[in-house]
Amino acid sequence: xxxxxxxxxxxxxxxxxxxxxMSISQISKEISMSQPSVKERILKLEEKKIISGYGTIFNLxxxxxxxxxxxxxxxxxxxxxxxxxxxxxxxxxxxxISGEFNYLIQVQTASIEELAxxxxxxxxxxxxxxxxxxxxxxxNRILL
Length: 144
Known about the structure:
alpha+beta
């Protein structure tokens, strides 16, 4: 990495991670730095792909998708699985992993019944194991 992150960059990143829509003027007030300097630092972080995007976090429980499940699957039909997951609205994350299973799928459903329907449609791609989250301790953890 040819751009070292200093303490000021970390402060800017922390503020943006907590509130991605924070204005440059607000960030400059929070860290006692001029707006042009803050903007320049953010642009450099974006150019170096250290900041790769901005987003919104949804409360899935309020959207009737509060059941979180992690599904381990073993398949030789990798591209079919990827395509299937791209189309499935229940899938929020897909990871290629090592070990006995080669993919980890995170899904959000409204109920156990909806999860069962999803798993039924997944069966043809290979054997799987599911782990239903009983409680989210923390998610979207702040990394800095």
